[in-house]
């Protein structure tokens, strides 16, 4: 590179010098030559003309012409160009006869021309011009050419050299960058030189390696010069074999046995018999890819397939069943009793149970069957079978494997399962449909005494009806299709109406009047009960305000609060907003809750109840005696009323044990200074007995059925008029006015509180 650069430098200098010399000399020389030639031609022309003129004068005056100096000077002064010149007539002896008056700067260019008289040479005419202007211009051109030549010389000499230097510098920088990249590569780069080998096969000899190849891939400097078959114990020998006859880039994956490492080798030709191999350790990438695949297709807790992979396997199994004419069973598992274990023993214990369930299921299914966990405590088994009876055997076998006790944290716990089964192609032809139908069947298997259940169209129809009813409930809230009826509560001693219980009803455009037992359970299950309960509370308080403004006597309004409503919503805030909107005195509002809802979260329940009590709201326990409560709760909670469930009132006059229960409840309430209400009173005997036992208030069909607002106002006005006419005539015991007597069993109706079982069954009526 240096020799080539010097040669180019010499050639460039010589060429630039020659061109500079030409630019310096040639323009000035050309100008001087042309100017000199022109001046010479002009002198000759002027001289010949003037010589003829003077000769004519000499011929005309041969003897005296020499003495006519003025005329000669006049003749010499005549010229055809403005250029200065000196004309002089000389005798043959060289003496000046006449001369023009111009002054010229030396050096001069002169030309002499003879003057003849009758063919005799008598004198000479000398014409002179100054060469100074021409020489001055020539010198200026010479200087300008020299300057131009000097600039041209250096430009011609330096530009190519600078370009060469820049190219050399760029090449050097590029080489340094290449070397930097070459040495800083995380991948190992090994350069091989192809040399002829045995049997006309080219061998690859290691020529160079980068630091990564040394530190990461175990190459050594002493490996340079060795055959690729010798480096790393021949690990890369397959590259040589693969390159034979291969075109373009070659990519191979190699495993290093013992070390558990995986390499990718990219081999490509670099020309001039050189081959480069780029090595990358993809062990971690492969491990990460496997982990991502496990996350994408497998459950991280149990190692079973997840939903995504399950659907793919089901597609394959459906295809196989279709080809071979088999049926396919989809068994949808849901563990029973798992949530209480999670809540009491913690999620770690729950995870141990799920892992054990997965292990037991793995040991119970065939290799060709598919086992997956969908999430939570839901598992799915997919199996091919000849007949549906085989699905029964599979379900029974799996249940037997799952039912033995589980030991968690040194404790033995029992976990059962409910299984829903759908059959391909009878219950669906797609994985999604089969899973959905098996899920529907599983919920039917939750019924008492049922362990597994096959899907049927009736189940789907019920589910669709439930879904439709849920939608209609939401629409009913928006379209204001709900309304309230009110069942009076009377004083057990006087028979006077002291309170009314607000009962929700639904007037559906399609179904007509819908009783609470048809929609309250679904409302609780779907959460619609919360906005519905708020509507009942605000509507009842608003109506009470209207009745008081219309002149009715003050009375309590009892509103049933669902357990879902009590636990999920900010009930205290709703009550405060209701009081602010309606202006009703909260001392006239009674909220009824069930025992079951009170014991779910004792601390939170107590906090909410005391806040309500601080608002001056009365709090009652509905359906007392049918739930699971503690007398300790009654002592610690701010309870005002106990309402004895109608189940104990129905046969209170016939069955001694029923009377004993009622007497015990009344006795406990009185001992704790609680107000006692009995609901479901249908006969005079029941009313008399309860009044005698100290029951404070009575409610039931014996007195009043649930009334519409207009009918209730009529009853309230009639009672007010009766009291005003005879204020001391109110009867005692159960002999008060029966506004709406007799009728069906079961007095209350349609409250928003769940039944003692927690399933939300409303009161009839």
UniProtKB/TrEMBL annotation:
Residues crossing the lipid bilayer are: 12-34
Q: Where is the composition biased (Gly residues)?
A: 731-751
* Species: Geomonas paludis
Query: What name is this protein filed under?
Result: EAL domain-containing protein
Q: What is the lineage of its organism?
A: Bacteria, Pseudomonadati, Thermodesulfobacteriota, Desulfuromonadia, Geobacterales
- SMART domains attached to this UniProt entry: EAL (SM00052), GGDEF (SM00267)
Keyword Transport carried by entry: no
Keywords recorded for this protein, A-Z: Membrane, Transmembrane, Transmembrane helix
> Is Isomerase included in the keywords of this UniProt record?
no
The residue ranges flagged as biased composition, category Low complexity, are 752-765
Q: Which domain of life is it from?
A: Bacteria
Pfam families per the UniProt record, alphabetical: EAL, GGDEF
UniProt feature coiled coil, ranges: none
Q: For the EAL domain, which residue ranges apply? A: 466-720
Region annotation Disordered: where it falls in the sequence: 723-765
Q: Where is the GGDEF domain?
A: 326-458
């Amino acid at each position: 590179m240096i020799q080539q650069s010097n040669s180019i430098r010499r050639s460039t200098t010589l060429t630039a010098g020659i061109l500079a010399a030409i630019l310096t000399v040639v323009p000035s020389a050309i100008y001087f030559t042309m100017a000199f030639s022109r001046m010479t031609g002009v002198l000759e022309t002027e001289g010949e003309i003037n010589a003829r003129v003077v000769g004519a004068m000499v011929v005309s005056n041969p003897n005296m012409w020499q003495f006519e100096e003025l005329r000669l000077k006049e003749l010499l002064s005549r010229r055809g160009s403005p250029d200065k010149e000196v004309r002089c007539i000389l005798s043959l002896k060289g003496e000046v006869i006449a001369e023009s008056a111009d002054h010229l700067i030396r050096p001069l260019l002169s030309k002499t021309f003879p003057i003849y008289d009758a063919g005799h040479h008598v004198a000479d005419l000398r014409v002179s011009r100054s060469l100074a202007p021409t020489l001055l211009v020539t010198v200026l051109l010479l200087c300008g050419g020299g300057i131009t030549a000097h600039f041209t010389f250096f430009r011609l000499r330096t530009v190519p050299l600078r370009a060469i230097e820049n190219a050399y510098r760029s090449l050097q920088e590029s080489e340094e960058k290449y070397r930097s990249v070459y040495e800083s590569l995380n991948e190992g780069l090994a350069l091989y030189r192809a040399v002829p080998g045995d049997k006309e096969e080219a061998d690859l000899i290691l020529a160079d390696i980068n630091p990564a190849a040394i530190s990461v891939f175990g190459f050594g400097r002493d490996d340079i010069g060795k055959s690729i078959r010798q480096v790393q114990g021949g690990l890369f020998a397959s590259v040589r074999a693969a390159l034979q006859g291969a075109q373009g880039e070659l990519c191979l994956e190699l495993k290093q046995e013992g070390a558990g490492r995986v390499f990718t080798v990219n081999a490509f030709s670099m020309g001039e018999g050189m081959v480069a191999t780029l090595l990358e350790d993809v062990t971690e990438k492969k491990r990460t890819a496997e982990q991502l695949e496990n996350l994408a297709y497998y459950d991280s807790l149990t190692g079973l397939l997840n939903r995504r992979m399950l659907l793919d396997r089901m597609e394959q199994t459906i295809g196989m069943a279709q080809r071979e004419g088999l049926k396919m069973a989809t068994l949808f598992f849901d563990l029973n009793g798992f949530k209480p274990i999670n809540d009491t023993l913690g999620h770690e214990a729950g995870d141990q149970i799920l892992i054990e369930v997965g292990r037991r299921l793995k040991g119970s299914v065939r290799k060709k069957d598919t086992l997956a966990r969908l999430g939570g405590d839901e598992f799915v088994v997919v199996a091919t079978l000849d007949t549906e009876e085989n699905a029964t055997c599979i379900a029974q076998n799996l249940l037997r494997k799952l039912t033995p006790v589980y030991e968690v944290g040194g404790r033995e716990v029992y976990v059962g399962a409910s299984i829903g089964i759908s059959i391909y192609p009878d219950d669906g032809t797609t994985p999604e449909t089969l899973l959905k139908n098996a899920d529907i069947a599983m919920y039917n298997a939750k019924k008492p005494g049922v362990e597994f259940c096959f899907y049927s169209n009736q189940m789907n129809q019920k589910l669709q009806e439930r879904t439709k009813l849920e939608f209609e409930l939401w629409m009913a809230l928006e379209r204001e299709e709900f309304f309230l009826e009110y069942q009076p509560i009377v004083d057990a001693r006087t028979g006077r109406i002291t309170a009314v219980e607000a009962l929700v009803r639904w007037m559906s455009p399609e179904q007509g009047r819908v009783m609470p037992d048809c929609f309250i359970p679904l409302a609780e299950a779907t959460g619609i009960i919360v906005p519905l309960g708020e509507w009942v509370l605000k509507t009842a308080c608003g109506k009470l305000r209207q009745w008081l403004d219309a002149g009715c006597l003050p009375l309590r309004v009892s509103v049933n609060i669902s357990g879902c409503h009590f636990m999920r919503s900010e009930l205290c805030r709703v009550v405060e907003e209701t009081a602010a909107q309606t202006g009703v005195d909260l001392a006239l509002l009674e909220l009824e809750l069930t025992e079951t809802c009170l014991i779910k979260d004792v601390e939170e329940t107590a906090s909410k109840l005391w806040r309500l009590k601080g608002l001056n709201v009365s709090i009652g326990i509905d359906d007392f005696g049918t739930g699971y409560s503690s007398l300790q709760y009654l002592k610690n909670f701010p309870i005002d009323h106990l309402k004895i469930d109608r189940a104990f009132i129905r046969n209170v006059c016939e069955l001694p044990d029923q009377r004993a229960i009622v007497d015990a409840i009344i006795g406990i309430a009185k001992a704790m200074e609680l107000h006692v209400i009995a609901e479901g009173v249908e006969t005079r005997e029941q009313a008399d007995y309860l009044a005698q036992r100290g029951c404070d208030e009575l409610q039931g069909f014996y007195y009043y059925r649930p009334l519409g607002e207009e009918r209730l106002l009529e009853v309230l006005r009639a009672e007010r008029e009766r009291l005003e006419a005879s204020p001391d005539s109110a009867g005692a015991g159960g002999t008060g006015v029966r506004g709406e007597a007799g009728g069906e069993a079961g007095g209350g109706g349609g409250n928003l509180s769940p039944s003692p079982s927690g399933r939300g069954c409303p009161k009839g009526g």
